[in-house]
Prior knowledge:
By secondary structure, the protein is α+β, with helices and mostly antiparallel strands. The chain contains nine helices and 19 strands. The strands form five sheets. It has a seven-stranded mixed β-sheet. A six-stranded antiparallel β-sheet has the order 12-13-14-15-16-19, with no helix packed on it. Strands 2-5 form a two-stranded antiparallel ribbon.
Amino acid sequence: MLRRAAFFIFLIISAGSLAMGQSDPITVKPTKSADTPAVPIAAPQPAGPHLKPADLDERQPVSNTTRMQLIRLLDAEFVHTRKYIPVGDKTVVIADDGTVRPGDAALFQTAQKVGAAAKVGDRVQITTIVFHEKSIYLEINGGPKKKQKWFQHIEIGVGSSSNPVTSAVQITGAALSVEFKKHVPEMTGEELHQILSPVLDFSVKTAAEVYADTLPPKIRQAVKNHEVLVGMNRDMVVMAKDRPRQKVREKDDQGHPYEEWIYGELPQDVVFVRFIGDEVVMVKIAKVSGEVITKTQKEVQIADGVPSLTTLQSSDRPQDEKGGVQPEQRAHKPTLKRPDEQTEQEKQQQEQQENGNAGAQKPQQDEPQWGTSGSGQQPADTSQQQPANTSQQPPAQQQPPEPELQKRPPL
Length: 411
């Protein structure tokens, strides 16, 4: 009993001492002194340049696990293209130094001849990925070859003729490759995206944004501002203004056919974009205020699918260029008179002008004073200058009168 009482007393004393020694919590606040400089916050670093295949040469060869991960990452992925890719073509190669073969002009010309599997900014799907020893092979939209099932080879014949069960498969895809010097190295999915970035865009962008990124800065700014420049093609106009609600096909004064796209409706500004072939030759802007602005000077030059600037050199806005925007001249009022015919008012104005010119041609001379010769000399004796007797002059010879003709008697 004594032990229990002593134990309880000890507990009571220890609890009281702990309660007496407890105090408010101590908070420590950092003091800012002039001697201690503030620690700067690291700013986000800008994204570096595109990764090249040669930058990964020092790494180990890719493992089977990494291959499976990259195939899972890219298989059936939808991306946007940055180049023209001809249909059925597999010559597009990203070299180890990051360059793309063949060039933009060659790809555009081939796509014009055989057709395009994808244009700049189009959305495509990666359908096949194959890892070789020194390259990675990718197919888009089904690849460059016909891939048929076993039942597509079956034909049903009646007599001497036969017809296939299914229709022939059309080629709609293409392929590209990534080359390495030594071997395909270990890499992550993000690094493979950067290696493929010269041809494929994996970012979440619209087709217009991807297409605008491939243009020169001033043309890109015009597309973002929804402005049409003379010399653009149809794809550029669609990216800048979207597809028109109204199209008009007519012929000009010389009989050449053209197509005009109309954007906007009253009471807003109306934009008329005239095409001859695939090129914009005139842009007419009819404003609500009644002012009409016409642009006919070429501002964009497109050679083999590669756009470049012609007149935009110093300004970001095409309206600021000298001669780029010209107000439309008002046409003459319709009339029924001939081109060489003059009205009565025009005849009177012409007569007044001729009379005024005739009067201006005759200089006015001051009359000389009486008794002077007009040159400030002394008066001269006029009796010596004129003959005294005018009768001394020889008389003028008189011509004989013509004989009169006799009248013919009447019949």
